[in-house]
What we know:
Helix content: 25-40%
Shape: elongated
Number of helices: 7
Bound molecules: zinc ion
Strand order of the largest sheet: 1-6-7-5
Number of strands: 10
Distance between the termini: 30 Å
Strand content: 15-25%
Structural class: alpha+beta
Order of helices and strands: HEHEEEEEEEHHHHHEE
Radius of gyration: 20 Å
Amino acid sequence: MPELPEVETTLRGIEPYIIGNTVQAVVIRHYGLRWPIPHDLPEKLQGQVIQQVKRRAKYLLLETQTGSAILHLGMSGRLQVLNQARSAQKHDHVDIQFANQIILRFTDPRRFGALLWTENTATHPLLQQLGVEPFDPTFSGKYLWLRAQNKKISIKSFIMDNKIVVGVGNIYAAESLFLAGITPMVPAQSISLDQFQQLAKSIKLILRQAIKQGGTTLKDFMNSEGKPGYFSQSLKVYGRAGLPCFQCGTLLTLVRIGQRSTVFCQRCQS
Ligand SMILES: [Zn+2]
């Protein structure tokens, strides 16, 4: 599933090809995504210039003067930049064609993705409730610590709550907690300010690393099968239950927290 780093990589991959370009046509072959694509979306986008491409949590925002297209990759979605028309395959649901012949193609086999339109991103129901971005200057240990007061939920569930901070998926939560040396099951309210400062730093570092590794596939973004790197080689705990900890050799423990499996080191994270 595309997580924040893959979405950020996608943004950086498509941005240079579409920014400042005029949408000539929008071809929709399948309206039934997670939410139906609005029937008037082609009409809204046509003739508009893409002024900016932004990411908010895992949403990509294609901003024009009159409004923004909101794109979500869902479970299996991806975007490709084509420099010439290529016949659409079964799961190629949307083509956005630009005046400079570039085509932005949205492919999504499982159709949990979304393509919507809004005149105001600040008040859109999908975007309005989102917490702070992990790379925003306001995201800090202090911020987390203040929000964690009286929160009995586990620290792992807490950092995965996108009303608190966006983009910390299961992999990144497990890896950040390992790096910060914090046990994932501990109640959020019992974490000290010092530990939160360590944790905020770890979250930024882990996400930056993942974006950097995803970025290595960028050169192939055009006309590729564009699968941004999932940085699986650098994982310290995620997916390594029962294997020895790289740091201390203790066998890593698997627990379930909020219906998600979590792997951690009993010795390094306490
Ligand atoms: Zn260890």
